[in-house]
Amino acid sequence: MASIGFIGLGNMGGPMAANLVKAGHRVTGFDLVPATLTAAEAAGVVLAASPAEAATGAEIVITMLPSGKHVLSVYEAIVPAVEPGTLLIDSSTIDVESARKAHALAAAKGADALDAPVSGGVGGAVAGTLTFMVGGGTDAFARAEPILAAMGKKIVLCGEAGAGQAAKICNNMILGISMIAVSEAFVLAEKLGLSHQALFDVSSTSSGQCWSLTTYCPVPGPVPTSPANRDYQPGFAAALMLKDLTLSQEAAASAGATTPLGAAATQLYAAMVDAAQGGVDFSGIIHRLRAGAML
Ligand code: NAD
């Protein structure tokens, strides 16, 4: 059993903290939103009055926050409060540069740090089946593994500081692009008089096979559990896809990588969000393609 500080008890952090409590850990949590605190307390989280209070005396501090600027401001507050040797794990999805700055802030205090963003969404957070993509040292990773195992089913060490965020950004750029590719194919099939089921039966067992087709199929019918069957309720909202694609484009610009399809996907999701559809599942991009949306 470990003593864990948990900062950011929102849609993801709330159920993740609850799973740590269920696994027998002592969890002290903080969030700015009162409703998240009420839910966390009901799940057995001890409430703190500030990020620094949640971190004080903790062996491990986990953050699950909206963006890099939130993570860095919380690290400015908690690093002075922790003892050298404390392990800081940031599971937010943030830019690689901020992740590396967070590692450096921790190192200056003699604390260990890991960037450990997740995939699996709110459903995975509740079920404790998240995938963690981890960047940092092997000793810190070995220490974190049993803790992360209470919240996830797959934990991958991707490399040094920032490598977890890099893996997350690259994976979600593939996802954003592939969902558009699959949606375009269904729209073309409709125009050609080919049924959704026929395209699915062929492509799901052919070279067009991918997760966006076989798990998250953007038309109702072929995959009964996909958001298309529940009027495109998320799932994974288009606004979150836009956030991750934007991070991919910032990373591509700073690293000098050429990502023309990533850039196009970012523009298409930005237009979807501008059209007040940011809360729709990202597979709802098919509606815009069907309506003739272009870049
Ligand atoms: P959320 O907005 O529900 O939760 C974030 C929480 O952080 C909020 O409750 C907010 O009040 C809190 N917060 C912000 N600043 C704070 C501060 N200074 N101190 C304490 N708390 C503060 O967001 P979420 O859906 O839980 O996502 C969290 C992170 O996980 C994001 O980086 C997101 O990109 C990533 N993520 C989300 C999903 C998903 O499906 N929701 C999936 C994978 C990754």
TrEMBL record:
What's the Enzyme Commission number for this chain? 1.1.1.31
Give all residue intervals belonging to the 6-phosphogluconate dehydrogenase NADP-binding domain.
3-159
Annotated pathway? Amino-acid degradation; L-valine degradation
Listed under catalytic activity are: 3-hydroxy-2-methylpropanoate + NAD(+) = 2-methyl-3-oxopropanoate + NADH + H(+)
UniProt GO BP: L-valine catabolic process
Active-site residues per Swiss-Prot or TrEMBL entry: 168
Q: Which UniProt keywords apply?
A: Branched-chain amino acid catabolism, NAD, Oxidoreductase
Q: Does the keyword NADP apply?
A: no
GO molecular function: any one? NAD binding
Q: Which Gene3D superfamilies match?
A: N-(1-d-carboxylethyl)-l-norvaline Dehydrogenase, domain 2 (1.10.1040.10), NAD(P)-binding Rossmann-like Domain (3.40.50.720)
| InterPro entries in the record | 3-OH-isobutyrate_DH-rel_CS (IPR002204), 6-PGluconate_DH-like_C_sf (IPR008927), 6PGD_dom2 (IPR013328), 6PGDH_NADP-bd (IPR006115), HIBADH (IPR011548), HIBADH-like_NADP-bd (IPR029154), HIBADH-related (IPR015815), NAD(P)-bd_dom_sf (IPR036291)
Describe the family membership recorded for this protein in Swiss-Prot or TrEMBL: Belongs to the HIBADH-related family.
- What PANTHER family does UniProt report for this protein, alphabetically? 3-HYDROXYISOBUTYRATE DEHYDROGENASE, MITOCHONDRIAL, 3-HYDROXYISOBUTYRATE DEHYDROGENASE-RELATED
What is the protein's given name?
A: 3-hydroxyisobutyrate dehydrogenase
Q: Which organism is it from?
A: Elstera litoralis
